[in-house]
Structure formats: structure tokens, C-alpha cells
Design brief:
The chain is α/β, with parallel strands linked by helices. It has 2 domains: 126 residues, Nucleotidyltransferase, domain 5 (2-Layer Sandwich), CATH 3.30.420; 171 residues, ATPase, nucleotide binding domain (Nucleotidyltransferase, domain 5, 2-Layer Sandwich). The longest helix is centred in the C-terminal third of the chain and has 25 residues. The chain binds zinc ion. The site of zinc ion has 6 residues, from loops.
Length: 315
């Protein structure tokens, strides 16, 4: 059996895992990112997480074939430098050379959403597909595009940013500077924003009680209320699904992949999210009369897709 190390660098956590040839994570170690620190301290914690995961597997670095890193932002595969990662506050960080020196084994990296897509493609919801698109709805809307087994990220490694295509001209302000981006409507902060607005508009909505009990408004609040028949909650969920279907249909109309996978916490809503979403997509997508239509599915690996996908880099 051969082993590789996958490290998922997120805005909140750094998660490292030793992964075997069957895509099984045999040991894991997690540390907080604390991205407000200077980047070299974060790099030291990436090294710590990787070394600890290897030690937890009862191994040394000599037992590991290679390490892969999934990192937010623009990862230049030619130079090994993270050119820009807005949610880590990184500009031109020499990630690969630093980690390579510390581990002494080959090190590869990729944008984190791309790495997660690779994980789902190898071992999750997109297994057996030729082409697949994976979106992850979280703090933002990350996406990975795989065509014939290869990640597509454009001529400058900044491609596949489906989250920053506009679904509403002059709409909500996005963190990227544009207005009306897909991400500005279909991310956890966007869902929280529209839930809060609905609570203000309809003070007797169940969302008020649900959020007070939980101590905060979350991405789950509107779904929980809607499932109990709350009208305002249903309105928030319906609008979310309408916006989500718009962004997905735009993407399918360009790529027509075999599979389109939806991940992130909101995918825990299961069929309650998936069924109306599929119905909308199937009724509007350009290929609606085709017998070979894109399958719409939920991701299967959860937050493990980042580690598994990263472990496959360079393989
Ligand atoms: Zn944007």
C-alpha cells in the first residue's frame, strides 16, 4: 500500500490527513488557521499539521509518497506561489517551496475548491463521470471544473470562478468588487442576510424563535422554519433555490458536464433542497429535451473531499 498526505488549508482550519491508495483517510490532524497572523506562522502550522498526521498514522515522512495542498486563492502551478488569497490575506506566498523544504518529499498544490472537486471526482459523487463540476457553498461559493479527468483552471490558474459570474446585474455587492455575483446570493453569508431581512419584515415568523433558541441566525434557520410550514421561511428558501438554479443552469449551458455536484453545509438539507432545485433546472436548462442530461447530485465526501483531493495532486 502507498500513502500520500493531503492538506486542506481553509480560512478557519488547516486539516491534514494521510490517505491510502483506496482514498481512505487513515489519520488526521487539524489546527486553527488564524489567518490574521503573518503568513510564515500559518506555514509553520501547516507543517505541524502534516507532520502530526503522519506521526498519528505511525509513520515517518519517508513512508509518504508525496504531499498535496489545497489552498484558497490563485495558486500558480508553475511557480508554486499563492499569488493572491483574499480570505487569508496572502499576496505572493511561496507555499510549495516552504513546505517542500520542511517535509523533504515532493509537494504539489491546487486551489482548494479544485482539490475538493478532484476528491469528489475520484471517490465521491462524481465517481465514474468523465466531466464534472463541483460547487461548495460556504463562506463563498467555490467551484472546480473537471473535463476528461483534468482540472480546468484557465490560462492563469484563476479560472473556474463560477461564484463570480453575475446572476443579477447591479445586484448585491460581492466581496470581489462586482455587483450581483452568484456568490453574493448563494453563500452562507448571503443566506444569513436574507434570513435576517425576512425576520425584520415578518416579525411573527418562526425564524425569529428558531434563531433566538440557537443564539444566532445561521444558514439552517430558514430551512428549519420552511420545513415546519413557515411562510416567510419558505419564501427565503424558495428565493435561494431560484438563485442557485440560475447560477447552475448558466454553468450547465456552458459546459454540459456529466455531473454537477453541490457541496457545503447547505447540502445537508438533502432532498428538501435537491428535489425543487432539480425540477427548476430540468425545466429551464438548454438541453431539457436531451436524453443525456447533467445529473444534479449532492457531494458525498463532506469536508473530507479537500484532504482526499489534495492527496491526489501530482499522482
Ligand atoms: Zn464576485
Amino acid at each position: 500500500m502507498r500513502y500520500s498526505l493531503g492538506i486542506d488549508i481553509g480560512g478557519t482550519n488547516i486539516a491534514a490527513g494521510v490517505v491510502d491508495e483506496n482514498y481512505r483517510i487513515i489519520s488526521e490532524y487539524k489546527v486553527k488557521t488564524h489567518s490574521d497572523r503573518s503568513y510564515d506562522l500559518v506555514l509553520d502550522d501547516i507543517v505541524l499539521a502534516g507532520k502530526t498526521a503522519v506521526a498519528n498514522a505511525g509513520m515517518t515522512m519517508q513512508d509518504i509518497d508525496r504531499a498535496g495542498l489545497g489552498c484558497p486563492g490563485t495558486c500558480n502551478l508553475n511557480t508554486g506561489i499563492v499569488e493572491y488569497a483574499n480570505n487569508l490575506g496572502w499576496h505572493n506566498v511561496p507555499l510549495v517551496s516552504y513546505i517542500n523544504k520542511a517535509f523533504g518529499i515532493p509537494v504539489f498544490f491546487e486551489n482548494d475548491a479544485n482539490a475538493a472537486a478532484l476528491g469528489e471526482y475520484a471517490a465521491g459523487a462524481a465517481k465514474d463521470a468523465k466531466s464534472a463540476i463541483v460547487i461548495t457553498i460556504g463562506t463563498g461559493l467555490g467551484a472546480g471544473i473537471i473535463i476528461d479527468g483534468k482540472l480546468f483552471s484557465g490560462s492563469n490558474y484563476a479560472g473556474a470562478e463560477i461564484g463570480h459570474t453575475v446572476i443579477n446585474v447591479d445586484g448585491e455587492q460581492c466581496t470581489c468588487g462586482r455587483k450581483g455575483c452568484f456568490e453574493a446570493y448563494c453563500s452562507v453569508p448571503a443566506l444569513i442576510r436574507s434570513t435576517k431581512q425576512a425576520i425584520e419584515k415578518y416579525p411573527d415568523t418562526m425564524m425569529k424563535e428558531i434563531s433566538e433558541k440557537a443564539g444566532k441566525v445561521s444558514g439552517r434557520t430558514a430551512f428549519a422554519a420552511a420545513k415546519q410550514g413557515d411562510k416567510a421561511g419558505k419564501e427565503v428558501v424558495d428565493t435561494f433555490i431560484k438563485n442557485l438554479s440560475c447560477g447552475i443552469i448558466n454553468t450547465i449551458n456552458v459546459f454540459q458536464p456529466d455531473v454537477f455536484c453541490i457541496g457545503g453545509g447547505v447540502s445537508n438539507e438533502g432532498d428538501y433542497l435537491l428535489n425543487p432545485l432539480k425540477e427548476k433546472i430540468n425545466s429551464e436548462v438548454y438541453s431539457k429535451n436531451s436524453i443525456h442530461n447533467t445529473k444534479i447530485v449532492l457531494c458525498q465526501l463532506g469536508n473530507k473531499s479537500g484532504i482526499i483531493g489534495a492527496s491526489l495532486l501530482g499522482s
